[in-house]
Specification:
By secondary structure, the chain is α+β, with helices and mostly antiparallel strands. The chain has 4 helices and 15 strands. The protein is globular.
């Protein structure tokens, strides 16, 4: 029995020794000073929005023109049964921006527009679409359901394909800001249009909020010393080496090559398809194909077929005084030379 008490005493003593050692080590830990908390570095001073200047605003020089080319994509979606019928058409016009001498800003704007293009098809916003994504896949499902219903009820001849278009117009392009207006046009039995626009800082290519654009980017006031002078000739008929070619715009691979030369200090040249309106026998601008803010002294090479009886192309530009000039491009019947006719005075009938 004594041995048993002795064993218990030994075990209790061992626990006491361990506990006392632990307290000693804990006291040692308390004596160690904690490392000092690093003081936060001072934040750099925020750079505010610069105050609007009252100094005269200047355009880019001719060597730094802004030109915007239209890249088009057209797709046709067919029925899910045997693919023999078109149930939806999609036509997308996408602007491609080039700011001469500023590749970084051009790339920033085009990356933003690429995100818009992606969102138009997928419906995902990516932080840029701001609710204007079309979601082509969704509309394709509507078109397929519509076709299936008509097929099951024996009314396939009543099928009207769903139509989706995205068009754009450049409403401003100068040394401070670029604004591009978009229109999404949906027709699934009833036409609906979603209109919106995006603004960009020309120097950096950054997207501008509407509030910032309206407050700090007032349109520039500019004037000209002369009226616009534009000439269009077949490439084979010209030996002009005084104009630098800004861009090549191909509308028809098998079309004729033309050179559009800009001689005077013109601004905001805009090349579009010509839309004939039979109701009043007139022409109006259609899809925008190419835009340049200040093309003076340069040229555009155009590959297109303009041989039809009804004009296919037209352009507009801003003159020194008066209203915007709008001309239709056409071929003279006898000589085959390019003619420029005032759209307001041109009629296809009579």
């Amino acid at each position: 029995m004594k041995k048993y008490y002795r064993l218990v005493y030994i075990i209790i003593s061992m626990f006491l020794v361990v506990s006392l050692c632990g307290c000693t080590e804990l006291d040692k830990l308390k004596e160690v000073e904690a490392p000092p908390v690093p003081t936060p570095t001072e934040k750099p001073e925020a750079v505010g929005i610069p105050e609007p200047t009252n100094e005269p605003l200047q355009y880019y020089t001719d060597s730094a023109a802004i030109h915007i080319r239209c890249n088009t994509q057209k797709q046709e979606y067919v029925d899910p049964r045997d693919g023999s019928k078109i149930i939806m058409t999609v036509y997308v016009c996408s602007p491609f921006v080039t700011i001469e001498g500023n590749d970084e800003a051009s790339e920033n704007i085009n990356s933003f527009i690429s995100a818009l293009d992606e969102s138009f098809y997928t419906g995902d916003d990516y932080g840029a679409g701001k609710g204007h994504a079309a979601d082509i896949n969704y509309y394709n499902s509507i078109a397929e359901d519509n076709f299936t219903y008509l097929a099951q009820t024996g009314r396939e001849d009543e099928l009207v394909p769903v139509s989706i278009e995205r068009l754009y117009t450049v409403t401003r392009a100068d040394s401070h800001a670029i604004r591009i207006d978009f229109s999404n046009i949906f027709n699934a039995g009833e036409e609906q249009t979603d209109s919106y626009y995006y603004c960009f800082d020309t120097e950096t290519g950054d997207s501008l909020s509407v509030e910032l654009y309206n407050e700090f980017y007032e349109p520039e006031d500019y004037s000209y010393e002369s009226n616009p002078a534009i000439s269009i000739k077949k490439l084979a008929d010209t030996d002009d080496n005084t104009h630098s070619i800004l861009d090549l715009l191909t509308l028809d691979e098998e079309g004729e090559n033309y050179i559009i030369c800009f001689d005077d200090d013109i601004r905001d040249f805009r090349l579009c398809y010509a839309v004939y309106n039979p109701e009043d026998d007139s022409f109006s601008p259609g899809t925008e194909l190419w835009f340049c803010s200040c093309p003076a002294g340069n040229a555009l090479q155009l590959r297109a077929d303009i041989s039809g009886e009804i004009p296919r192309l037209m352009f507009s530009c801003s003159p020194a005084e008066g209203e915007t000039i709008i001309n239709v491009i056409m071929l003279e019947t006898v000589t085959g030379n390019v003619m420029l006719q005032n759209a307001a005075n041109l009629h296809a009938v009579g």
